[in-house]
Amino acid sequence: METRAPKVGVVTVTYNSETVLPDFLDSLAQQVGVELRLYAVDNDSHDASVAMLRAESRLGFVAIVPNDSNVGVAVGNNQGIELALQDGCDWVLLLNNDTVLPGNALATLVQVAEENGLKLLSPAIEATEPAGTIWYGGGKFVPLQGFRTLHGTAGQSVSQFPKELVKTGYASTCCLLVHPAVFKSVGLMDPVYFVYFDDVDFAVRSVAQGFEYWVTPEVTIIHKASSLTGGKSSPFTVKWVSRNWPLIAIRHLNVASKFVALSYIQVWMFARLALRRDSVNVFRVRQSGFREALRVASAVPPPRLSYEATNGQTSGSRLGEGDVRDGSAAEA
After folding, report:
1. Is 54 exposed, middle or buried (0-12, 13-18, 19+ CB in 10 A)?
2. How many other C-beta atoms lie within 10 A of the C-beta of residue 13?
3. What value does the CA radius of gyration of the chain take, rounded to a whole number of Å?
4. Left, alpha or beta for 311 (phi > 0: left; psi -120 to 50: alpha)?
5. Is 177 exposed, middle or buried (0-12, 13-18, 19+ CB in 10 A)?
6. Do both 69 and 145 map to the same domain?
7. Disulfide engineering: 125 pairs with which of 77, 84, 135, 161, CB 3.0-4.6 Å?
8. pLDDT tens over the chain, length 332 residues
């Protein structure tokens, strides 16, 4: 009997992504050994992103969710995840569209995960600036530093990638293979973060539920980091990181640990100003983000899968081949 190829739902969120989509779609079109279904959630792009997705004819299935506003990465991922699970995907791959994958990436990730009984798996990720260096090869978060994430080998030569499958403390959703069981147990991404730290929050909740993160060197992908957000020092990144860093500490730590973490974040911000790594204007943006985090309601739980509230059935109708669904109808 012929074995059915695993069905992998690739979920990506686009926002003015036309400069990176050609390489991204080319690499998806080269995937072998899996039934690939692309769920592209567009957050009201004002470039050719949606047109490029609609013109894509090489993939067997493309579902486009065109939102009429920028609802954020977390909500966008949730929309795609819901649709992928509704369509019976065996695995969900959360994937940035500023990445390039080798042709065997999806099949190999699934094979490694299934052979080792894993539920969360990341490939090794190579940076482009500078080329030949590590963007991610394993990492962890530090609760008393506000769940600050550390990629231990980031910036080193790719020769320092792990040589075998290794357990790790945290992996970003730049490229993360997730088994449906994780979403059923942990829930979806928390929309409160909009962008940045949503993947850290998901990791904190996943680890608390007993799930383990792993990274395999059998697949290496390329990540054009910050090509769409302008880099770590862009006003967009500074705003959201400065808000969401203290916010995750507020949401997940007890009173004493929260005090330590928030104090650490403030010392870090003042140190950057004192050392002239941040201008006064950037410091003000950071402080504004910090204060906003203190005002955000911290008791609202992350969303659950919609089928959990409907006796095992997802809400809404199934997508047909190549259908375009209105974003408001698909939103988690």
Report:
1. middle
2. 29
3. 19
4. left
5. buried
6. yes
7. 135
8. 568 899 999 999 999 999 999 999 999 999 999 999 999 999 999 999 999 999 999 999 999 999 999 999 999 999 999 999 999 999 999 999 999 999 999 999 999 999 999 999 999 999 998 899 999 999 999 999 999 999 888 889 999 898 999 999 999 999 999 999 999 999 999 999 999 999 999 999 999 999 999 999 999 999 998 666 556 778 989 999 999 999 999 999 999 999 999 999 999 999 999 999 999 999 999 999 999 999 987 678 889 998 543 334 333 333 333 444 433 333 33
Residue 211 neighbours by CB distance under 10 Å: 18
14, 48: one domain: yes
For residues 239 and 222, membership in a common domain is answered with: no
Instruction: Give domain status of residue 315, yes or no.
Output: no
- 1 part of a folded domain: no
Q: Are 133 and 63 part of one and the same domain?
A: yes
pTM of this prediction?
0.90
Q: What range does the domain containing 117 cover?
A: 7-227+301-310+325-330
Residues 78 and 199 in one domain: yes
Overall number of domains in the chain: 2
Residue 174 domain-assigned (yes or no): yes
Quick check: 89 and 34 in contact, CB under 8 A?
A: no
